[in-house]
Amino acid sequence: MYQCFIVEHYLNKAVDVYCGGPDVFKGTIEACADNVLTLKNDGKYTHVAIDKIIAMWPQ
């Protein structure tokens, strides 16, 4: 459900992703598949489980 929303509205856009506590990930959404969000920031990739995401907003 959320995967479709992310692909339709945020793919290839720079975002901040909040997962609770001090966990905020920043980057451009490169992919969203198999319930994993892939962010690219400064040439490095971060993979976040979609079910752990609390909030997301554009940078």
Structure summary, number of beta strands: 5
**Could you name the ranges where pLDDT drops below 50 across 5 or more consecutive residues?**
none
Question: Order of strands in the sheet with the most strands?
Answer: 4-3-2-1-5
* Assembly status: single chain
Rg, Å, rounded: 10 Å
Instruction: Count up the helices.
Output: 1
Major sheet details: 5 strands, antiparallel
Instruction: Give the N-terminus to C-terminus distance in angstroms.
Output: 23 Å
Report mean pLDDT, rounded to a whole number: 95
Strand content: over 45%
Shape: globular
CATH T-level topology? SH3 type barrels
H-E order: HEEEEE
The number of distinct structural domains comes to 1
**Global structural class:** alpha+beta
Which CATH class applies here?
A: Mainly Beta
Helix content: 10-25%
At CATH level 2, the architecture is Roll
InterPro entries: DUF6897, MM0924_fam
Pfam families: DUF6897
Characterization of this structure:
- With 59 residues, the protein is of the alpha+beta class.
- It has one domain: SH3 type barrels.
- Helix content is 15%, strand content 53%.
- The protein has one helix and five strands.
- The chain has one helix spanning 2-10, and strands at 14-18, 24-33, 36-41, 44-49, 55-58.
- A five-stranded antiparallel β-sheet has the order 4-3-2-1-5.
- The model has no long low-confidence stretch (mean pLDDT 95).
